[in-house]
Amino acid sequence: MEGGDDGETLMGGLRAERLDTTALPAPERWPFFMELASRASAPMAMDSEHTADFRADVDMVALGEVELCRFHYQSLIGRRTPRLIRQADPEVFQIALTLAGTSVIGAGRGTNAIPVGDLTLVDWARPHRLVHSGRGDERAQASAVTALVPRARLPLHPDRVGGLSAARMSGTEGPGALLAQHLLQITGHPEQFRAADAPHLADVTLTLISLLLARHLDDEPRLPAEMRQQALLTQVHDFIERHLDDPDLSPRAVADAHHVALRTLHRLFADQEESVGGAIRRRRLERCRRDLADPLLRDRPVQAIAARWGFRDKAHFSRAFRAAYGLSPRAWRESARPGTG
């Protein structure tokens, strides 16, 4: 939806809204955005050089008690003051991922620039100040993805977590990279998920945030066993996804890369719909199926595509592909040609 109208944008999918200030007359855009920003997190004293014609849009995705937002907006400054905190303490933490422009946030005595690709923590129960600015011409926009989570849902002491306010945390390696990819996927493609997925997505979000914060607090052993298991499972799936083209990718290789025994890895997948070997095989076959249907790869031999995704043996690949899709790789490629019934 746009402007000041609220509404669900996806029938049967995740509850998502799109709001855009440009749907309103120019004088109404800044007041609308301030109200929207307060609703998305908490009241903040804000100002901007562009208040006469403030251009911004936000995609909001609700996962129950976890709320995700992807913002694009012109430069602004904001302050969360003690007075505003006394008026309304939402008892939430917010994780913010910088996507474009520059972000500078300060809390207590510390101030940090958060470059594109990195994350920071915002504690809405503590005073803080922030500056977001676009780069280039005056209409260049800053952009960020945020996750709002209840303080009570994180299995870490809130005072210790609050001590990470305004800290710079990497979004390109370790748990930060997993969290960044997770937030971008959901906010960028909410249509790929069902409404029934929301509770699970909320749990994964909380797990990845908890792992990131615990890593920075050197407090990972305090995470509940179930959360550590979920975090390991997420890391394993990410590792598999990034190494599908490695012909030596196997359950043993996955276990060794994560410093766990092979039997531990198999136990991790015991409650999943497929084994770790099945997950590797299915994802490789999906990549092959996609590439075989790609007209730009029409001249590439079938076996070259299979080898590209880790299948060394031609006969084994053909059997696995037929078992999965009911057609040989060559027959699938022909059926996927434009104009083929």
UniProtKB/TrEMBL annotation:
Organism of this sequence: Micromonospora carbonacea
UniProt entry keywords in alphabetical sequence: DNA-binding, Transcription, Transcription regulation
Name of the featured protein: AraC-type DNA-binding protein
Pfam families: AraC_binding_2, HTH_18
Domain HTH araC/xylS-type: 234-335
GO MF terms, alphabetically ordered: DNA-binding transcription factor activity; sequence-specific DNA binding
Xref: SMART domains: HTH_ARAC
Cited SUPFAM superfamilies: Homeodomain-like (SSF46689)
InterPro entries hit by this protein: AraC-bd_2, AraC_XylS_family_regulators, Homeodomain-like_sf, HTH_AraC, Tscrpt_reg_AraC-type_HTH
Organism ancestry: Bacteria, Bacillati, Actinomycetota, Actinomycetes, Micromonosporales
